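>> received
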Amino acid sequence: MRTWVKICGLTTPEAVDASVEAGADAVGFVLAPGSPRTVDAPTARTLASRVPTSVETVGVFRGQPIDEVLRLAALAGVGTVQLHGDETAADVATVRAAGFRVVRAVGVDAYADETEEARRAFREDILLIDAVAPGAGAAFDAAPLLAAPPHREWILAGGLTPDTVAARIAELGPAGVDVSSGVESSRGVKDLGLIRAFVAAARAA
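>> returned
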């Protein structure tokens, strides 16, 4: 199967264009405060307007009120909302009812603590399993996932780079991968060559 690839935390037209040209399936714009990759909704909308309809546009949120998430996602013109935080299954349902696809991003430790019943209740479109500290560029101990892998397709994030992504795909078997800091020359600054190398390595895995 073809590995689904998302390049996240994009802030410039050049990085968006490089991601699309490299063959990414999705691009992400951070609309949560406090990140070096945060952009405002009008900037995200301008960047998203460069993206062909065949590529998914994702607004990334963390611990924000759902009404604010919906307002900013609409202003940004994205088709998918990615939720990092303590959002409930009802929150996910609200976002989906507003017409957005939903990526539920959960840290590996928190995911391991969820019951199967709780996992099914979310009904997200995409499950993303991340490191404990999203966006920090740190890989995580894969033992919990190897011991009890998800019973559905899922996306891997956390500490991935062009040099490590193929091995992590082979080890854990995700349907896709998501990268941000692993394709940066410095924190928050995307490296166009690393973006291209990452997509190529993920697809070759």
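>> The beta strands are 4-7, 26-30, 56-62, 80-84, 101-107, 126-130, 155-157, 176-179, 184-186, 189-190.
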